[in-house]
Write a structure and sequence with these properties.
Length: 259
């Protein structure tokens, strides 16, 4: 601001030399004001103290203005849709969600999040599409894939994933703009059938050996745990589990095809 003002005043007095001198003098004043304001707001010099997950979440959400607490509550909300999808509330599924949050954020913070969910969120009419629209706009694609894997893990906590739970997760996947091939790949990780390995690698049984190898390389790039180093430890463990399923699928096809 002062740099432009200085250039105008300088030009009016000493023409071009005055404009140059005024610009540099104004720039110096601008820098002094910026440093002063930054120190007053805690953004210059020493950074303000924040929780360890805050920085991680900011990286995962591209710097948007959504708090980690919002993210946690929305993730619990999506979990509740899956848990209630089959018309019954499984204690093992509830325990899985609580254990996940305790592992990711610590017992005290997890309890506070669940308390807020029970007191506020459960008393409101929740819309999965609206929740997913917010998450879709604020998270990376690989993070949304991990959310789906987490939701399938919740559904599978009681030993099986029901058709109604699959349908609910598929709805959520659609709202999150997850490609159908990726949804089917993650789904196949929780169902044992002759075509599971092919579905995990996102190929058909008619694929050639060369196509199988190519698909494996592509899945390694997509699901490698390094893709989620910006997320919390619980997410990273889920990514490792997904990656292991991809490797197991490929090794199975290697044995079946003999290459």
């Amino acid at each position: 601001m002062f740099s432009i003002l200085g250039a105008i005043i300088g030009y009016s007095i000493y023409r071009f030399p005055g404009a140059v001198a005024g610009f540099f003098l104004g720039s110096f004043i601008d820098r002094l004001n910026f440093k002063k304001g930054a120190n007053q707001n805690g953004t210059g010099g020493q950074r303000q103290s924040r929780g360890p997950f805050s920085e991680v979440f900011e990286q995962a959400t591209r710097g948007t203005r959504v708090t980690p607490a919002d993210f946690e509550l929305n993730l619990i909300s999506l979990s509740s849709f899956v848990i209630k999808a089959d018309g019954k509330v499984s204690q093992s599924e509830l325990d899985y969600v609580r254990q996940y949050f305790v592992q990711a954020y610590g017992k005290e913070r997890a309890n506070a999040t669940f308390k807020t969910f029970n007191e506020v969120i459960k008393s409101r009419e929740m819309d999965p599409q609206r929740i997913c629209m917010m998450l879709r706009a604020r998270t990376r694609y690989e993070s949304r894939l991990q959310m789906l894997h987490f939701l399938f893990s919740v559904a599978n906590a009681d030993g099986s994933v029901s058709t109604s739970e699959v349908n609910m997760i598929q709805r959520i996947a659609g709202y999150l703009s997850v490609q159908m091939a990726d949804f089917e790949s993650i789904k196949a990780m929780f169902f044992k059938n002759p075509d599971s390995a092919y579905k995990i690698l996102e190929i058909d049984r008619t694929a050639t050996d060369a196509e199988v190898k190519k698909a494996y390389r592509e899945m390694v790039k997509k699901y490698h745990p390094d893709k989620l180093v910006h997320m919390d430890e619980a997410y990273q463990k889920g990514a490792e589990e997904k990656f292991r399923k991809v490797q197991e699928a490929y090794e199975q096809l290697q044995k079946e095809r003999g290459f």
